[in-house]
From TrEMBL:
Pyridoxal 5'-phosphate (PLP)-binding protein, which is involved in PLP homeostasis. HAMAP family: PLP_homeostasis. One of its GO terms (molecular function) is pyridoxal phosphate binding. This is Pyridoxal phosphate homeostasis protein. It comes from Streptomyces luteolifulvus.
Amino acid sequence: MTDRRDELAGNLAKVEERITAACVAAGRKREEVTLIVVTKTYPASDVRVLSELGVRHVAENRDQDAAPKAAECSDLPLVWHFVGQLQTNKVRSVVGYADLVQSVDRSRLVTALSKEAVRAGREVGCLLQVALDAGESARGERGGVAPGGIEELADLVAEAPGLRLDGLMTVAPLTGEYAGRQRVAFERLMDLSTDLRRAHPAANMVSAGMSADLEEAVAAGATHVRVGTAVLGVRPGLG
Ligand SMILES: *Cc1c(COP(=O)(O)O)cnc(C)c1O
């Protein structure tokens, strides 16, 4: 465990250096960017060590893994983000531990989240996941609402009891016009965020960038980066 602690501390320090360097390069303050550590596939013991090392935001993408982990770590001062594609039959469970859901991408999900948030007496922060590789009205292959659908979905979240509209999230597309062009993709997300904030000024979170492209996200103006591999190591198998 001590070895693992040293490993995580070392990795965190390197990621911290990268974020700081990216902020300096972009002329931004370090406090403008929040690190979210994506702990998916890794055990609750790692989450506990990360918390001891000062991490305050963690993210998970599968309810089956996340629910027991969050329960084991419920004594820790952590903010839990849900970042995976979410089926409506998992919403009740997710609302039990997630402070924010970053993968809101359709009206049925908004309805289900609202119902369960009210039932649980919780307020759930919502980020709309934007599919930059989708057509103007379709949804993306890995989830996400197309840019043309943001406004309508945002209004729906803003009016839904138990939900709070916090901003936008994206994953850099692997296909389409933005493939391999993370900086351009993240700048597009920032433009969409600017549009969103005209009607919803408080929805100012912009979640973009992972282990491989956090610098591009910080340069484009992201407020939150989601880093897994660079902190915890390469995940075995799919995740
Ligand atoms: C796994 C995951 C991440 C982290 O990816 P890494 O490349 O491991 O840093 C970020 N965002 C989402 C939505 C993820 O599923």
